[in-house]
Amino acid sequence: MSPARSSAGAVLVTPSPAAMVWHEPGRAHESIAVPGVELRPGEALVEVELATVCGSDVHTVLGHRRQPAPGVLGHEQVGRIVALGPGGASSVDGAVLALGDRVVWTVTASCGACERCLRGLPQKCHELRKYGHERLERGWELSGGFATHVHLLRGTGIVRVPEAMPAELAAPASCSTATAVAALDAGGGAPLDGAEVLVAGAGMIGLAVTAIASAAGATVTVVDPDDVRRDTARRFGARTVLDPGDGALAGQLAAHGRSAPVLSVEASGAAGSVRALLETSEVGGTVVLVGSVSPGPSVELDPERMVRRLLTVRGVHNYAPAHLQGAIDFLAATPGPFAAERLVGASFPLDALDEALVTAAAGTHVRVAVDPHAR
C-alpha cells in the first residue's frame, strides 16, 4: 500500500483503505472501500499491522451482546501512523507523534472537558466514542480494528510501541492488558510485594493480572474451572490454582496454606465467583469486579459484613489512557510469560474474518489474529 498523501486534513491512500462491516448474527461480513479520509486537528490515520479477536467480538457476532449495526468490529490492534491531522497529535506520555510511529490506542475516545473527564474518568465520558463498538457513519467509516486502517479521533489515548515488541503482544494490550492494569490500580494502590492476591477467571484479563501482580512480588492464587487455563495461569505466575468445583473457596485457600487475600480480582463474571470473593476477602481488603460486563443474576450483599470487615468493592470497565501506557511499559520491561507463551494460536487474512471469528468462538486459542497484509 502506498504512503498516504494529504492536503490540509484530506488524506488519500492508494489503494483505498478497506474495512469489514458486520450487519447481524449469521450474516457474513462485507468489505467496503474508503477512498478518502478527512482528518481534523488532533486526529491520525493508522495502518493496521495486526488485530486480535476479543471475546466481546465473538459474543457480538453470535448475537450474545447488543451492538449497533452496521459497524466495524475490532478494538485490539497495533499499527503505524501514516497521516496526521492539522497540528499533529501527541501520545499519552506527551511526546509529539510522527509519521511511521508504531502505536496502540485506547478503546475509547473522550472529550476531555465534561464532568466525568474532569473527574479522571475519561473512559466514561459523556461524549464517549468506542472503537469497534459504533454504528458505521460517514466520515468515520474506519472506526474498528478489522480493517486495513483505523481513523483515530481526537481524545484517543495513543501509546508508542517499541519496534522489538511482537505484534502479538502489542495488539491485545489495548484491551485485556490495559484492563488488568486498571484492575490492579483499582485495588487502592497498596504495595503488591508480599501481598496475597486472588484472581477468579484465567482468561486474558485474569492472566494479565496474574502476571503483573506476580512480577510485582505478590503471591497469586487463581481460580478457574478449566484445567488447561489453570495450567496456563501457573506459567503466568500463579503460586496456587484452584478448581471452584472442589469445594468452598475459603476452605480450599486454607487447605493450600493461603491467607485471605487483601486484593481479589473477579474476571469471570460468574455470580457465584463474585459471591465467593466477597466472602473470602481479608479485613480491609478490596474486591475488584471486572468480568461482570453482561446482565446476570444478582448477588446478595451483606452490609454488616462489609462494614465490620472494612471491605471495598470497586468496579472496572474500560480503562484510562495511563493504564494503556502502563500495559505497554510492563510488556516492554517484563514480558515474561507473555513472550514465552504462544498467545496467538491462529492468524487469518482480513477477508477471512468470518473464519477467524468461528475459530475464536471454538475457544481453543487464547487469541486469534487478523493480518490485513496476509493473502
Structural overview:
InterPro entries: ADH-like_C, ADH-like_N, ADH_phosphonate_catab-assoc, GroES-like_sf, NAD(P)-bd_dom_sf. It holds the Pfam family ADH_zinc_N. Its EC number is 1.1.1.1. It comes from Agromyces mediolanus (Corynebacterium mediolanum). Its cofactor is Zn(2+). This protein is of the alpha/beta class. The chain has 2 domains: about 5-175 and about 320-370, Medium-chain alcohol dehydrogenases, catalytic domain (Quinone Oxidoreductase, Chain A, domain 1), CATH 3.90.180.10; about 185-315, Rossmann fold (3-Layer(aba) Sandwich), CATH 3.40.50. About 25% of the residues lie in helices and about 25% in strands. The protein contains 11 helices and 19 strands. Helix 1 crosses helix 11 and helix 3 packs across helix 9. The two termini are about 15 Å apart.
Helix-strand pattern, N to C? EEEEEEHEEHEEEHEHEHEHEHEHEHHEHE
CATH topology of the largest domain: Quinone Oxidoreductase, Chain A, domain 1
Structural class: alpha/beta
Overall pLDDT score = 94
Largest sheet: 8 strands, mixed
- Give the name of the CATH superfamily of the largest domain: Medium-chain alcohol dehydrogenases, catalytic domain
Put simply, the count of helices is 11
Can you tell me the number of structural domains? Answer: 2
- Count of DSSP strands: 19
Give the strand content.
15-25%
| Shape annotation | globular
CATH class of the largest domain: Alpha Beta
Question: What is the first-to-last residue Cα distance?
Answer: 14 Å
- Specify the CATH architecture of the largest domain: Alpha-Beta Complex
Rg, alpha carbons? 21 Å
Give unreliable regions as ranges: none
Helical content class: 25-40%
GO molecular function: alcohol dehydrogenase (NAD+) activity; metal ion binding
InterPro entries: ADH-like_C (IPR013149), ADH-like_N (IPR013154), ADH_phosphonate_catab-assoc (IPR017743), GroES-like_sf (IPR011032), NAD(P)-bd_dom_sf (IPR036291)
Enzyme class: oxidoreductase
Cofactor: Zn(2+)
